[in-house]
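Why do we care about 3D structure at all? Because function follows from shape, and shape follows, mostly, from sequence. That is the central idea of this module. The next example makes it concrete: a single protein chain, its amino acid sequence, and then its structure expressed as tokens.
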Amino acid sequence: MSKQVIVITGASSGFGALTARALARAGHTVYAGMRATEGRNAAAVADAAQFAKDNNVDLRSVELDVASDASVVSGIARIIADAGRLDVILHNAGHMSFGPAEAFTPQQFAELFDVNVLSTQRVNRAALPYLRRQGRGLVVWVSSSSSRGGTPPYLSPYFAAGDGFTCRLLCQRAYPLGHRDLDHRAWRLHQGHQPFRPFRLAG
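And the structure:
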């Protein structure tokens, strides 16, 4: 595969940070999207810069708060200005909540859905026009095995958001993209699963 310009949301830690480093090692230009790059995630920015230096790879941090329209628009615009293009969007950002379902307020449910589901719409609105003009691109949606069933206790909001995320992906695929080469794929990650092995949705 030729060198790609990739943005990963929620890449300050966890799967996002691991994926950013793996793709940078593979020779791609990777933008690790995260919020509060000069605040709570300043250490994550420094860690990514040190990793890039130590391994001679192209890993960059970008301010990208998926809960903010302005931050998303600004972050995607910065990537385009820096790299001249964007080839891959990897939707990874998400929050997990834990507790009895009835303990959560409607506002807390809404905040979880905003980050885990609606954030993908913010990013797509900002980024997909660039991919369409290029005539090609890849959108990767990192989901959870919770959307395939199972009932671990105290994860009701997270599971509900997981199903919403999957439905959001299916709706996006149904929308006419205008280019055959603009592809959408989903990954589900769970304990014991082979990390980062993609599966292709039918249709």
